[in-house]
Amino acid sequence: MNLNGREQFVSALKEEFPEVREEVEDEIWTGLLHLEMACFARFTQDAIEQGDFDRLKQCFDFAARFYETADPNLKNAFYDSYLEYLDFNSPNGSKAEGLLPTVLRQAWLEINEYLKDLWVKTQEREKT
Q1: Residue 47: which of 67, 75, 19, 13 has the closest Cα?
Q2: Distance of alpha carbon 13 from its chain centroid, rounded?
Q3: How far is CA 99 from CA 16, 93, 105, 115, 120, in A?
Q4: In the chain, helix, strand, coil percent, each to 5?
C-alpha cells in the first residue's frame, strides 16, 4: 500500500473542496501540514454547525480515505489538527457524529481518551 503524505493530501483537498483552496494556499499556512489540516477541520466544523450533512459526509469520506493510507506525519495531523477539534456538542452534533466512518470514529475516540487521561494526570499533579 502506498502511503499518502502532505503533498497528496493538500493537492486532493484543494481539488475536492475548491472552497478551501484560497485559505490553504494562504502564505501563513501553506507548507505547514498541521495548519493546512486545520483549514480542513474548520471547513468540516462549519458543515456540522450549518447542518450541511451532504458536505459533512463528503468531508468525512475524504478524511477517512486519506487517514487509512496516511504516512505517520499525516496521521498525526489528523489526530492533532482535525479529529481533536471536531465538536459534536452543537444542535447538529448528534447527527453529525453518526456520520463518522468507523475508522474516523475509532481515531476520534482514541484522541479524546488520550486527552481525557492527560487532563486527569494534570489535575492529579496540580493537587500535589
Answers
A1: 19
A2: 12
A3: 19, 10, 9, 22, 29
A4: 75, 0, 25
Angle at 90 between CA 97 and CA 95, to 5 degrees: 30
CA dihedral 80, 3, 65, 18 (to 10 degrees): 80
Cα–Cα distances in angstroms (integers) from residue 32 to residues 17, 26, 64, 71, 81, in the given order: 18, 11, 21, 15, 11
Rounded Cα distance between 116 and 12, Å, is 33
Q: Where are the domains of the chain?
A: 6-127
pLDDT of residue 126: 80
- Judge contact between 81 and 32, C-beta under 8 A: no
Q: pTM for the whole thing?
A: 0.88
Alpha-carbon gap, residue 64 to 70, rounded angstroms: 10
Count other Cβ atoms within 10 Å, centred on residue 9.
25
Q: Quick one: pLDDT band at residue 28, thresholds 50, 70, 90?
A: confident
